[in-house]
Amino acid sequence: MKIRETIPFNIPYHTGKETIYIADCIKRGKTCGNGEYTNRCQNYFARTLGSLKCMMTTSCTDSLEMAAMLAGISSGDEVIVPSYTFVSTALAFARQGATIVFADSRTDNPDIDAEKIESLITPRTRAIVPVHYAGIACDMDRIMEIAERHGLLVIEDAAQGIDSSYKGRPLGSIGHMACFSFHETKNIQCGEGGLLAINHPDYVKRAEILWEKGTNRQEFFRGEVNKYGWVDLGSSFLPADYVCAFLWAQLEELESIQGKRKKLWEHYDSRLRGIKGLQCPEIPGYATNNAHAYFVICDTPDRRTRLIERLKRDGIHAVFHYLSLHKSEFARKSGWDTAVLPEADKYTDCLLRLPMFHDLTHEDVDRVCDTIINFYNACQS
Ligand SMILES: *Cc1c(COP(=O)(O)O)cnc(C)c1O
Question: How far apart are CA 255 and CA 262, in angstroms?
Answer without folding.
Answer: 10
